[in-house]
Write a structure and sequence with these properties.
Blueprint: E1 3-7, H1 12-28, E2 33-36, H2 41-51, E3 60-63, E4 68-71, H3 76-83, E5 92-93
Parallel strand pairs: 1-2
Antiparallel strand pairs: 1-3, 3-4, 4-5
């Protein structure tokens, strides 16, 4: 399973969520692959290939196993549930 976070360097929502995402990683003993898309063309292309109309912006969290995703800012409970592959408020199901 891969957990992906697409973000922008100066995206205020991404910056705001960073400490919470790091806490979730530490609490669960997991790693979320962080992919900057505003300044990295390869990462932007990868996000476009995965997104396909799901979010259209950052932050965009995507679980490659469950196809669960989160668009935009979220809370710790939702990010934790997403990382564990569970359904919760704020978590969509990808294609």
């Amino acid at each position: 399973m891969s957990l992906l976070e697409f973000y922008g360097d100066t995206c205020p929502h991404c910056v705001e969520m960073k400490p919470m995402v790091e806490k979730v990683e530490k609490d669960l003993g997991i790693s979320i692959e962080k992919l900057e898309v505003w300044n990295n063309e390869a990462n932007a292309k990868r996000m476009e290939e995965i997104d396909k109309g799901l979010c259209g912006g950052v932050p965009f969290f995507y679980n490659t196993e469950t196809k669960g995703f989160i668009c935009g800012s979220s809370d710790e409970a939702a990010v934790t549930a997403w990382a564990k592959g569970k359904k919760a408020n704020g978590i969509g199901e990808g294609k």
